[in-house]
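User: Predict the structure for this protein chain, please.
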Amino acid sequence: MFSITAKGLQRLHAEIDAERLRSRHSNSWTVFLLIPANQEDAILAAAASLLGTDLSYGVIHTEVAPGRMRGPELAVQVRAPDLREALILVEDMWTELRQAGRARLPAVPHIVAVSPPRP
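Assistant: Here is the predicted structure, written as structure tokens:
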């Protein structure tokens, strides 16, 4: 048996959420977010400082599918039990990216697509 302070519990939740955001497991959701044009490098730098460099995120440039994409997208893999939890984690990540101040991001992420985990 152990006890944990409120600050310790908050830190534990932050660590768990960070691990889930960095996951590359097959049970990960992939969330695609529209990002401002010409902010790709700044967003990647902010994501690297927040999520590390483990390839659980990346920028997809509009040239990949010009007829289908409205602009560049940030793809993020999230390990979560359901879509609701995945979106909560992505929204929290977006807030942290905004607070990092390296890129000009809208207050609310624009989700353009979600891919569910592989069966």
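Helices lie at 6-21, 40-51, 83-100.
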